């Protein structure tokens, strides 16, 4: 299998499938996929770069769980079962690495459905 074939296979996976794959790789090779923490700031106080990628995290489904599951399903393209798992396992990231506008739009949709949401 070539690198390109592996990358193509990964592109086709859902978020939950990717999460399972990462866990399996960590267990198999005894490594962790956590990104190293960079030391922020420098002597003299360098300004931080403006954040360009955001994560929308579902904090709570609230009282309208079914509406929230439908909103997560619609926003992510996940199947009903996978969307329900995301909602059931809150707090949980719904989408990661998205633009500020997309994050705010998704937050509004989820809040409209009754969820409590954070954009990070």
UniProtKB/TrEMBL annotation:
Domain Large ribosomal subunit protein bL12 C-terminal: 54-120
Large ribosomal subunit protein bL12 oligomerization domain mapped to chain residues: 2-48
GO BP terms: translation
Sorted UniProt keywords: Ribonucleoprotein, Ribosomal protein
InterPro entries: Ribosomal_bL12, Ribosomal_bL12_C, Ribosomal_bL12_C/ClpS-like, Ribosomal_bL12_oligo, Ribosomal_bL12_oligo_N_sf
Cross-referenced HAMAP family: Ribosomal_bL12
Name listed for the protein in its UniProt record: Large ribosomal subunit protein bL12
Keyword check for DNA-binding: no
Domain of life where this protein originates: Bacteria
Biological role stated in the UniProt entry: Forms part of the ribosomal stalk which helps the ribosome interact with GTP-bound translation factors. Is thus essential for accurate translation.
One GO CC term, this protein: cytosolic large ribosomal subunit
The keyword Ribosomal protein is annotated on this UniProt entry: yes
UniProt record similarity statement: Belongs to the bacterial ribosomal protein bL12 family.
A single GO molecular function term of this UniProt record: mRNA binding
Subunit structure: Homodimer. Part of the ribosomal stalk of the 50S ribosomal subunit. Forms a multimeric L10(L12)X complex, where L10 forms an elongated spine to which 2 to 4 L12 dimers bind in a sequential fashion. Binds GTP-bound translation factors.
């Amino acid at each position: 299998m070539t690198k390109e074939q592996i990358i193509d296979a990964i592109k086709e996976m859902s978020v939950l499938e990717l999460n399972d794959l990462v866990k399996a790789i960590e267990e198999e090779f005894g490594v962790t996929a956590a990104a190293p923490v960079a030391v922020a700031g420098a002597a003299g106080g360098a300004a931080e770069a403006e954040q360009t990628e955001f994560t929308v995290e579902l904090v709570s489904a609230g009282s309208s769980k079914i509406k929230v599951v439908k909103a997560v399903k619609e926003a992510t393209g996940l199947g009903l079962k996978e969307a329900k798992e995301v909602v059931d396992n809150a707090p949980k990231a719904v989408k990661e690495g998205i633009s500020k506008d997309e994050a705010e739009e998704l937050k509004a949709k989820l809040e409209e459905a009754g969820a409590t949401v954070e954009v990070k």
